Amino acid sequence: MKINKCFLDLKNSYLFATVGRKTAEYKKAHPEKDVIRLSIGDVTRPLAPVVVDAMKRAVEDMAHTETFKGYGPDQTCYGYGELISSIQKSYQRKGVTLETNEIFISDGAKSDCGNILDLFSNENIVLLPDPVYPAYADANTMDGRKIVYADANEQNGFLPMPDPSVHADIIYICSPNNPTGAAYTREQLKVWIDYAKSLDALIIFDAAYEYFVTDPSLARSIYEVEGAKDCAIEICSYSKTAGFTGVRCGYTIVPMDLKREGASLNQLWARRQSTKFNGVSYVTQMGAAAVFSEEGETQISRNIEYYRKNAELIGNMLDRLGIWYTGGKNSPYIWLKCPNGMDSWAFFDYLLEEANVVGTPGSGFGKNGEGFFRLTAFGTEESTREACERISRLLQK
Ligand code: MLT
Questions:
Q1: 297-320 burial by CB neighbour count: b if 16+ within 10 A, else e?
Q2: Distances from the Cα of 60 to the Cαs of 51, 198, 243, in angstroms?
Q3: 270 C-alpha to ligand 1 centroid (Å)
Q4: Model pLDDT, residue 12
Q5: What pLDDT is recorded for position 13?
Q6: Structure confidence by residue, pLDDT tens digits, 287-341
Q7: Which residue ranges have their beta carbon within 6 Å of ligand 1?
Q8: 118 in the Ramachandran plot: left (φ > 0), alpha (ψ -120 to 50) or beta?
Q9: Nearest CA to ligand 1 atom 5
């Protein structure tokens, strides 16, 4: 038996696991301290009432022979019609027409960002921005794919544009971006689409944070941009949109127009899913189906607004301190420059020890993240206010 040696090329632990371990060690050594976590993007608002009611009704269905459900419908890779058509309608509201068989239900964006790679040879070259959400880099490293990076930095506002001299086959774009909070306009995405097409490459577009977009010039789906359907797969999630980080549900769009080497990627994905996945639970899918109902949209918007106010609190605090940052406006993440030239882990330790606030060191997202730091707006309002006061007091000293 031989192991997949590519795993040996990974860092020992996943970024958020390292942050979690360091936080737990600090708490163990200082049990009296009230530590505020603004690190991993985990939500704090409860599920919307309309979602909870739909899930309760689904549980009741499971309690009776007549309405009990086993495996989901296999024709749609176990996605229930109610959920698929609610996603289709939500795309229609963005001006995007999708066929129901282009929508695949998943247990969240993170899984499919890695799972989708089953479709592609490991000879492909992958282009990632640096800094980048570590799950994309780690999933490709596990498969032994070569990764090249597009530099995101202060000069380009952490929104790199394609370099025509660089060859890539698979391009990951996350907008609004994790970790930097920066977001592409439709015009900028068009440039990426043209670049991908010039190389016959595929874009994997992670739209997990689309609900935070308020600026009408920014895209919420790559399919809002002309020409995307034959070069892009879009992956999205209910985690940040509707507080499903613990419930687990998402969706992946693989357009029928997407073909490579004569094969339909939609058919390959359906084949992969029917072999390696048994769907998301009925109760979860019924809860998710309520998210894009009229009432659901109203209720989840209140939660998004709550997080937007947290982002504004953090942004205002950084403005007062004169600290440079991106994000926070169309995104739940605030990406700031560490004060006084500190490196990312030094600032992590300083904030943890002196303010008892946990964030995420930018260097954990790539070399260009060194000297930067990420805070999330997904905390409670009280903890976010308290964290801002503590950080202000510390940095004003
Ligand atoms: C993050 O903090 O970057 C996200 O919560 C990670 C994720 O969505 O998996």
A1: bebbeebbebbbebbebbbebbee
A2: 14, 52, 22
A3: 26
A4: 83
A5: 87
A6: 999 999 999 999 999 999 999 999 999 999 999 999 999 999 999 999 999 999 9
A7: 40-42, 110, 133, 178, 239
A8: alpha
A9: 41
Give the distance (Å) from ligand 1 centre to CA of residue 273.
23
SS3 111: helix
Report the separation in Å between the CA atom of 40 and the middle of ligand 1, taken as the mean of its atom positions. Answer: 6
**Helix H or strand E encompassing 298:** helix 294-321
Among 367, 372, 314, 386, smallest CA distance to 338 is for: 372
List pLDDT tens digits, range 360-375.
Answer: 999 999 999 999 999 9
Q: Which atom of ligand 1 is nearest to the CA of 16?
A: 2
What is the model's pLDDT at position 61? 98
Separation CA 288–CA 51 (nearest Å): 7
Q: Residue 28 has which token pair? A: 């163990």
Is the bond into 131 cis (omega within 30 degrees of 0)?
yes
CA 145 to chain centre: 21
Q: How close is the Cα of 262 to the center of ligand 1, in Å?
A: 35
Our mutation pick for probing the ligand 1 site, out of 15, 113, 133, counting the most ligand atoms within 8 A of Cβ, is 133
Long-range contacts, 301-307 (Cβ 8 Å, 24+)? 302/48, 303/43, 303/45, 303/48, 303/242, 303/243, 304/211, 304/212, 304/241, 306/45, 306/381, 307/43, 307/45, 307/212, 307/332, 307/377, 307/378
Q: Which residues, 6 or more positions from 69, have their beta carbon under 8 angstroms from its beta carbon?
A: 61, 62, 282
Separation of alpha carbons 387 and 394, rounded Å: 11
What residue type is 339 in one-letter code?
P
191 with 171: CB under 8 angstroms? no
pLDDT at 294: 95
Q: Which atom of ligand 1 is nearest to the CA of 135?
A: 9
DSSP state of 171: E
SS3 content of the chain, % helix, strand, coil (to 5): 45, 15, 40
Answer whether 0.85 is exceeded by the pTM.
yes
User: What pLDDT, on a 0 to 100 scale, did the predictor assign at position 291?
Assistant: 98
